[in-house]
Predict the 3D structure of the following.
Amino acid sequence: MATRTLRIGTRASALALWQANWVKSELEKKYPDMEVTLTKIQTQGDKILDVPLAMVGGKGLFVKEIQEAMLRDEIDIAVHSMKDVPTFFPEGTGLRCITEREDPRDIVVLKEGYNSFNDIRQGGRIGTSSLRRKAQLLSLRPDLQMIDIRGNVQTRISKLTEDNLDAVVLAAAGMHRLGFGEQIGEYLEPETCLPAIGQGALGLESRIDDDGTNALIDFFNHPPTAHAVIAERAVLATLEGGCQVPIAAFGTVAGEQLDLIGLVSSVDGQNMLKKTMHCHVDQAKETGIALAKQLLAAGAGSILNEVYGCDTFADKD
């Protein structure tokens, strides 16, 4: 007989369910007498599939309803893709664990006949709804046409033929987790396309005062990944404001050193700023804030304000 039940909240997409079931499996291995259940929750982001994310609110779209279920005590933990998680949480909940990162890179699935991204014809059609991906790829190839696509991983891959695209850009982590690795045409290195903040890592959210649950899930936390993602999210929290803009940050940890790259760009990729900082892992958050301020001092505020009509950054130094 189970000694207790732990309820996991998750989106119902194939990738979200893979992630939640992986967490469920790890919990069952560690606690054989515990019953672990999944609660599927539809979020606003799952309902709105015909509008680019940047036009309908961005990150909170995929977590708000799950967080509300947690506050109503309908679930104990939530499993999120870290790149979907806002930098602020509702009062009473918080990010408890960040799991070991899968491959953080972006990838391209290519139309038959292409061997690499560089082979794509002049004026080629690239499917992605990510402003971050659009900006970085247009900075390399201003001739490309960026076509907005939404939906789950399999739906977006199918757009390659349905919408007569030359390539679609996706995250390597989702492709690997769902078993689509053989369809990857090319990996985009961070030097080419800096990954989304938190890409490849999972986050476990819980109620802050739920000591029993928090003690049960703490083993999921992977310190090197957590340090990197904390730094990346500090960049985002300092820069983002309320605007949906091409912002990226990517941290890597070797021993006790954290290397952090941050980027702000115009959507067309023609006005792009990058900065790099290094620190001890214990200074991850502070370094993320400092790097964001360096970007602002170098002119990122002008990009964010003038291009997007947002005055969020008027008082930042």
Q: What stands out?
A: The longest helix spans residues 284-308. DSSP finds ten helices and 13 strands in the chain.
